[in-house]
Design brief:
- This protein has 326 residues and is of the alpha/beta class.
- It has helices spanning 11-18, 47-57, 80-88, 100-108, 135-148, 163-180, 185-209, 226-231, 250-263, 277-286, 308-323, and strands at 40-44, 61-65, 91-94, 113-116, 217-222, 235-240, 267-270, 289-292.
- It has a four-stranded parallel sheet with strand order 2-1-3-4, with helices on both faces. A four-stranded parallel sheet has the order 6-5-7-8.
- α2 (47-57) crosses α6, α6 packs antiparallel against α7 (185-209) and α7 (185-209) runs parallel beside α11.
- The longest helix has 25 residues, at 185-209.
- It starts with 10 loop residues before the first helix and ends with a helix.
Length: 326
């Protein structure tokens, strides 16, 4: 599999820069807040967790989310109201290490069912990345960033962008729901099977759509698509490893220009929820196109799809076009 793990070190923090932004569809009023309904009340930390809870729980759950649209999850500070709601919930579903405030609140919470998605699939260590972009100065700077954000060997949390790993998490969530709310276990199993089929179909579509392409290399604003690239035999090259809104160095721009020519890269991808300035700078200088590849931090009116599957299908079309699918 043609996968180069370059400039992806410290990726857990990368997720933190662009994660979250989950919708608040289930907590628009106090009456639907966690703990105030007759349903199985679930607090989700951000959109990918919210989607799983809603899909698996169906009519039996009331889901609230902690991360508002536009919020960076690693900077999330929980209000007293949010903390109280969490304490009243029947279950909390989160991805440990992404949001320190959430982790701390959960550790101190009396919530009986605490579901950590990071324990339901295998996360990969992208810490052994080559520090060859920008020379010694960049390597030192990057190492410093890694150290300040929790260690050199951070695990990549972007598991939901791999339908296979996301399906594994879904299976674990379903089992946790069944155990915590046994009266509706049969429905949770049924809903989980339906979701597994959706994710399986999505995985097949990606495998078929990206099997035969003119190039396997794609450029992104930041390194959010490591799992997706590995699953489908692609190579992700990130302009910025940690900060999606920082300015790339002239040396990095030049390097990517050369690589674009060598690898037949046509497109620089950016995200709907962060600035497209960096991507457009590179695209203009290198004579490349730009397009959106959505890391699914959340669903907004800018999303090219109404939910996880819809946006992932849109991402597939964008990749097929950019990579020259045959």
């Amino acid at each position: 599999m043609n996968v180069r793990r370059r400039r992806i070190s410290g990726i857990a923090v990368t997720a933190a820069t662009a994660l979250g932004l989950g919708t608040l569809s289930a907590c628009s009023s106090d009456s639907s807040a966690a703990g105030n309904t007759d349903k199985f009340d679930v607090v989700a930390s951000f959109y990918p967790m919210e989607y799983l809870a809603e899909q698996i729980g169906g009519d039996h759950v009331n889901v609230t989310t902690l991360t508002e649209p536009g919020q960076e999850p690693h900077d999330l500070e929980l209000s007293a109201k949010q903390t109280a709601r969490m304490g009243e919930a029947d279950a909390v579903l989160y991805l440990k290490s992404l949001q320190p405030a959430v982790d701390e609140a959960i550790a101190q919470s009396d919530v009986k069912t605490k579901i950590d998605a990071a324990t339901l699939t295998k996360l990969e260590d992208h810490g052994d990345v080559e520090h060859d972009h920008g020379g010694e100065e960049h390597a030192d700077e990057h190492a410093e960033e890694e150290h300040s954000e929790g260690g050199e060997h951070a695990l990549d949390p972007h598991v939901w962008l791999d339908p296979g790993k996301y399906a594994e998490i879904a299976q674990g969530v379903a089992k946790a729901f069944e155990k915590a709310d046994p009266d509706h276990a049969a429905d949770y199993r049924k809903n989980a099977e339906a979701l597994a089929k959706k994710l399986g179909d999505l995985d097949t579509a990606y495998k078929d759509g990206l099997k035969n392409t003119a190039t396997k290399v794609f450029f992104t604003n930041h390194a959010a698509f490591g799992y997706l690239a590995e699953r489908y035999g692609l190579t992700q090259e990130a302009i910025n490893g940690l900060d999606p809104e920082s300015e790339p160095s002239p040396a990095r721009i030049k390097e990517l220009q050369q690589e674009a020519k060598a690898d037949g890269v046509t497109t620089v991808f950016y995200e709907t929820l962060v600035s497209d300035k960096t991507a457009k700078t590179l695209a203009k200088d290198a004579g490349l196109k730009t397009d959106v590849l959505d890391p699914l931090e959340g669903i907004t009116d800018k999303s090219k799809g109404e939910d996880y599957v819809g946006v992932m299908q849109s991402n597939l079309k964008a990749l097929e076009t950019a990579l020259g699918a045959k």
